[in-house]
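## retry 2 of 3
previous attempt timed out at serialization; input unchanged, resubmitting
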Amino acid sequence: MKVDFSGINKKFNLKSEKIDQKPFFHDLNPDIKYLKKFAKDYMKYQKIIIIGNGGAVNSFLVLYKSLYSGNKQVEILNSMEPDLINKLKKTFNVKDTLVIVSSTSGTNVGVLEIMSQFLDYKKVIITAENDAALYQIATKKNIPHLSVPHITDRFLTSGAMAYFPLILLGIDVEKIDKFLHKAYNKYSKSNSDALKLSLILKKLEDKGYSEVFVPIYSNFLESFQIFIMQLMHESVCKDGKGQTFIVVCAPESQHHTNQRFFGGNKNICGLFIVTNQVDNKTITKFSNNLFDIKLRNGTIFDINNVPLAKSFEFEFIGTYNDALENKIPSCVLDVGEVNEENVAELIAFWHYMAVYSSILRDVNPFDQPQVEKSKEIAFEMRKKTK
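## retry succeeded, writing output
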């Protein structure tokens, strides 16, 4: 995986900063053998509901959506919307479904409310062992549970929250964990692309670029939308600092957000995420009697026999070159092939991006004070309904 900085103003001095701090997630060492042993009793379930919000589910989500191709049904349930829950229960019956309840703190009110709607289902709780409500419920009701450290869960890929459900799907978490920590070592170095990009985005913010357009050219990586936005918004956007990340799936984004990127306020820069296609043989094919049909400033013949992988690449190149012509600062993150190693590295890259970006702005990357305040207000309103 590599970053192409050639579309960014070259006058930025990328060697002026050095950050030696290694965050807590760098050295996490979960007991994967225990997780695999624990999972044996639950491998029979063909349907899985995971109740949780934000970091409690997002690391699993990006790995699952990127890598899984099996037949088990998985649903992330992150809302207490009653109509949604009732619809889901019609498809995910008690007999075939395992419900995983995931919250690091154990104080997530919404998670407890959703869990209350699945009383008859087999459940596993993943939380910190403390005096919070979720762990106390697990203890009092004898619900099997897995323990996680009580730390900021948006950085908690290496552990039970992501790995336990992945094991149930047959995904090799030992391989993922190895690649994840290999990438942590790579991006902890002072000359890493994660630090360089963090520096560039900070300098761009200082120049008025308050938004970052991030089109992801891969449907397999589409779930990185929420992953990146949570990391960068919750970690960095404090004390009136930090950029808004507009993360969208491409080339679909070219039919809506490109208009914002090129035609809207000039406070936006670009960060394109691209991948390599494994299939380079599938081609566009039309019958000869259609060749003379007009298409834009050419004909159908012009796209006949063109590999779809090339067409997909051209969609990115067209937008990126348009950005350069319009002097919009832009760079490209090339993930390579979508596989265990590169997806794990992409997670590690954004973990370090969030930490570096926070440190450069002198804010704490591991709290989310405004998020907690809104939760307190919502809980007080619940109390008043009695």
